[in-house]
Specification:
single chain; 199 residues; alpha+beta; Peptide Deformylase; three-stranded mixed beta sheet; 4 helices
Length: 199
């Protein structure tokens, strides 16, 4: 089922999400709905709070970047093509490497893209959809996508990482998003509207 993406301004996006156990009700359905909702919005990652559920789950599918021959090597593109993971109860153990900038966007904050600096490597502990535990290291673009989605379950948005000047420059755009004053081609739920809006 395609669920509406929660827009900037909704309090659920600011919650530090709670861990879940194997007995979490309808977990398979929630994860399936998250993938369906992400693909319907042409996303590469989605966290549970973005569909209104404040739990520690996020998903990543980096395959859309596999076609970008100008940015990534053939080896990188092959890796991105097959990278699809579900992260449950994730905990970042370490971030390392040099800071690097990449232009980020967010399904909850449409039409705003800004360069965000993040460290290039990440070590993370998580459980998969079968509750098998993993500790893995990622780098490059995959690490960045994971960092972005991990921020969501910590109540952090990519706009929080911008300079004070950048934040001032996008303030009116953020206000318009929270009020639903945008024309978007996927389902969204706006904090200042009772209804779900879709073009």
């Amino acid at each position: 089922m395609i669920l509406p993406i929660v827009a900037y301004g909704d309090p659920v996006l600011r919650k530090k999400c709670k861990p879940i156990g194997k007995d979490f009700p309808k977990l398979d359905e929630l994860i399936s709905n998250m993938y369906e909702s992400m693909y319907a919005a042409d996303g590469i990652g989605l966290a549970a709070p973005q569909i209104g559920s404040p739990v520690r789950i996020f998903i990543v599918d980096a395959s859309p970047f596999a076609d970008d021959e100008d940015t990534f090597s053939e080896e990188e593109r092959l890796y991105l093509k097959d990278f699809k993971k579900t992260f449950i109860n994730a905990r970042v153990i370490e971030e390392s490497g040099d800071d690097w900038a990449f232009n980020e966007g967010c399904l909850s904050i449409p039409f705003i893209r800004e360069d965000v600096f993040r460290q290039s490597k990440i070590k993370i502990e998580y459980q998969d959809e079968n509750f098998n535990s993993h500790i893995e290291e990622f780098d490059g673009l995959v690490a960045r996508i994971i960092q972005h989605e991990y921020d969501h379950i910590e109540g952090v948005l990519f706009t929080d990482k911008l300079s004070s000047l950048k934040k001032r420059l996008i303030k009116s755009k953020l206000t318009n998003i929270s009020k639903g004053n945008i024309d978007i081609n996927y389902k969204m739920r706006f904090p200042n509207l009772k209804k779900i809006k879709r073009r």
